[in-house]
Amino acid sequence: MRVQGVAASPGIALGPAFLLKSKDFKVVRRELSGADEAARELKRLRDTIDSVDADLSRLAKSVEHVAEGRQIVEFLRLLLRDPVMQGEVEQRITDELVCAEFALSVMLQDVMARFRELDDPYIRERAADIRDVGRRLLEKLLGTEKEALARSGEPMVLVAGDLSPSDVAGIDTGQVAAIVTDRGGSTSHTAILARGMGIPAVVALGNITGVVSPRDTLVVDGIHGFVVVNPAREELEYARAARAEYLEVKRSMAEDAQKPAETADGVRIELSANIEFPREVEQVKRCGGQGIGLFRTEFIRASMHGVETEEDHFHIYDRVAGAMAPDPVIIRTYDMGGDKFRPGMAREANPFLGYRGVRICLDSPDEFRKQIRGILRASRHGNVRIMFPMITHVEQMRRIRELVSEVGDGLSREGIPFDAGMQVGFMVETPAAVTALDLLLPYADFVSIGTNDLTQYTLAVDRGSPLVADLYDPYHPAVLRQIDQVVRFGHAQGKWVGVCGVMAGDPLAVPLLLGLGVDKLSVAAAVIPDIKKMISAFTIESAARIASEALSLPTGRDIRAMVYSRVAGKCPGILLDENLGIGR
Amino acid sequence: MKTRAITVPNKLGIHARPAALIVRKASEYLSEVFISNGVDEVNAKSIMGVMTLAAAGGTTVKISAEGPDEEKALEGVCEVVESGFGEEML
Asked: Could A85 and B48 be called an inter-chain contact, meaning their C-beta atoms sit closer than 8 Å?
C-alpha cells in the first residue's frame, strides 16, 4: 500500500517499521508477598537506576563536545541519583509492600505537584526534566518498546504521530533509516533537523501510525514524499535500485564537495550552511560548506533556561568561529516566539504577529547585551557577522546599532579584542522589510532573506495549518517579486543579499535565485552537494533568463513547471520533483 | 553540628544550575548537610530538595552540617553559595 505525504528530507530508505507511540504509562499497583519479594524489588529498582545511569553516561560521552548538552545530561543524572527521592521510593516498597513502578510513580506525582506550586518559573520548568528521568526509569522497569530501538541491530524506520525537535536531536543516525510522521510540514523544525542530519523523512501522512504494524517493511521516498507499506516484490526491487542510484550520486557529489561552488561561467557563489548546534560544524565541513550562513542560537536559551551568561554565549560562538575560520560565520541573535521556544511566554492569539525575534530582545536590553557581547568577543577570529531577526521598523535598527556600538566601546575600554569592522545584517522576513528596505539598509552591511517567514507573511498563510497549507508556496509570484525587489534595493546601496530559507536548499530554486541576483545561499549541510552541482549547471546569463521568464508567469505552479523543464536533464544526478518543497 | 547563615548573593537565586553545584559539592562529604530557608529544611545532597527550596537572590539561608567532616562540609558548601555560582550578582 502506498501512502502519499509531504517530502521533508531527501533520500530513499527501506527497513522495518518501529512505532513510537507516546502513550501514557499504565502503572498497576502490584502487592508484594513479603519481605523477600520486597528485597528483590529493591534490587530491581537499584539495577534499573544503574542501567539508566549507564545510558545517561553514554549519552554524556556522545555530547561531550557540546557544553550545553553535557550540562543537561549531568543535571538528569543528579535527578536520577537523588538520595532523598530514592529513599522515599525504597521505603514505600518495604513499608507498603508495593512494586517498584507503583512506588516510583507515586513519588513522581508528589514531586510534580510540589513543583507546580513553586513561584519561580525557571525552577517550575525543570519539572519537564524530572518527568523525563521518571519516564526513562518507568520504561526500563516496564520494559516498553523505546528500549527495543536501542537494541535493534538493523536501522529501522521511525513511525510517529509527530516528533518534537528534542526527539529528533536525540536520534542516533545509525539506528534510524528514515522518519515518517502523521503530522508536520516540509518546513517544520523537525523536517529541518532531519535534513540537517541527512535522514530521509516524509511527513503529513495523515494516519500512518494507524496503518503500519510493528516490523512491517516500509519503503520511504523522501524525494517524492511517499511511503510504501509492505511493498510487493517489484516495488521492493525498484526501491533498492533507486536507493543504490541515489547513494551513488551522493557519493560522487561528496567527492566534489571540497571544490568551491561556481556557475558554469566561473562565477563563485558563496554556499554556506544553516546550523542549529555547534556539533554540526563537522558535517558542514564534510559536505563542503564555505561557512555558516545562519547559526541559530535559540538552543542556548532552550538548554540553559534563561540563566545563560555572557561567557556561555562567548564560548559557544568562539568555538564555532574558530573551527570555521577563515570562512564566515553569521550568528543570528535569539529568534524566540512564533511557533518555537515559547515556554513561559504569554499566550497570544496570533503568535507570528506577536512577541518574537528582536521585539523580545529589545525589551530586555541586559540579556540582549550579553548575547551581543558574546558575539563581538567571538569576532576576534575575524570571520564573524551578526544578524538580527524580525526587523520591521527603522527604530529597531537604530537601537540595535546603538547597542552594538555601546558594547564595542565597552570592550575597547576593557582592552578585550574584537573585530571593529564586524559586518552587521538583518533578516528580511516581512513585506514591511521588503518594501521599506531602502530605509533600513543604511543601518546594515548585508541582508539575508528568510523565505519561510517571507512566504507566510506575504501570502498570509500559516504554514502549520493543514487547512491552508496548500496555499503556502515560495514560488508564488508575490514572493518572487519581493526577492527581486530585495536584490535591487540591496545592490543599489552596495549591500550583498543572501537567502537562508528552505527555498535556497531546493535544487529547483537555484537557477531562479541566482538569476534574480542573489549573492549567497545558505542551506542545510546535507543538501550542499546537490546545490553545488545545480549552481555549476547554469551560467549567470542562463539563470537570469529563467528568472525573468518566471517573473512574467501568473502562478507558482506555472513557474515551477517552467523551471523544471529548464532544469530537467541538466543534472541527471539530482533527483528532482517539480512539487518538491511545496504542500500538497 | 556546625551551622552558618548566609545571603544568596546572585540575582536569580538558587535555581536549577546553582542547585546542581550545591548538590555536587555537598555529596563530596560524608556528613549530612542541610539547607533551610526558615520555613523548610532540605537535604543538600538532594537536587529536588534544594530546587524546591527556591531560595531567591538576597534571601538568607541557614546551612548546617553534621558528621565526621562537618567543618569541611560546611566550609565547602558555603563557599559555593558565596561565589554566586559564577553568575550575575545582586
From this structure: yes
Answer whether B15 sits within 8 Å of A307, measured CB to CB: yes
% of chain A surpassing 70 pLDDT: 87
Joined grid coordinates for residue A158: 521511525
Contact A71 B16 (CB under 8 A): no
Q: Which CATH number fits domain A296-422: 3.30.70.330, 2.60.120.260, 2.60.260.20, 3.20.20.60?
A: 3.20.20.60
Whole-number average pLDDT of chain B: 92
Highest mean pLDDT among A108-122, A136-150, A374-388: A374-388
DSSP-assigned beta bridge partners for residue A18: A158
Q: What are the CA-CA distances from residue A452 to residues A83, A464, A475, B57 (Å)?
A: 48, 11, 11, 42
Fold of A426-575: TIM Barrel (3.20.20)
Strands A176-181 and A2-4: unpaired
Q: Are the beta carbons of B52 and A118 separated by less than 8 Å?
A: yes
Say what the pLDDT of residue A584 is: 28
Cα-based distances in Å from A443 to A373, A374, A406, A488: 19, 21, 15, 17
Q: Which domains does chain B have, with CATH numbers?
A: 2-86 (3.30.1340.10)
In B50-89, the residues whose Cβ lies within 8 Å of chain A are 51-52, 54, 56, 86-88
Residues of chain A in contact with residue B23, where contact means CB-CB under 8 angstroms, are: 78
Model confidence at A579: pLDDT above 90: no
Q: What is the pLDDT of residues A50-102, one digit of tens each?
A: 988 887 776 666 555 545 556 777 888 899 999 999 999 999 999 999 999 99
Architecture of domain A2-21+154-249: 3-Layer(bba) Sandwich (3.50)
Residues in chain A: 584
Name the active-site residue from B2, B6, B12, B15.
Answer: B15
Whole-complex ipTM: 0.90
Contacts of B43 in chain A (CB under 8 A): 83-84
Q: Which residue of A has its CA nearest to B25?
A: A78
Inter-chain CB proximity A309 and B23 less than 8 Å:
no
Q: State the amino acid at position A485 in one-letter form.
A: Q
Domain locations in chain A as residue ranges:
2-21+154-249, 35-144, 296-422, 426-575
Instruction: Report pLDDT for A114.
Output: 85
Indicate which residue of A189, A313, A381, A476 is catalytic.
A189
Are A200 and A222 in contact, with CB atoms under 8 Å apart?
A: yes
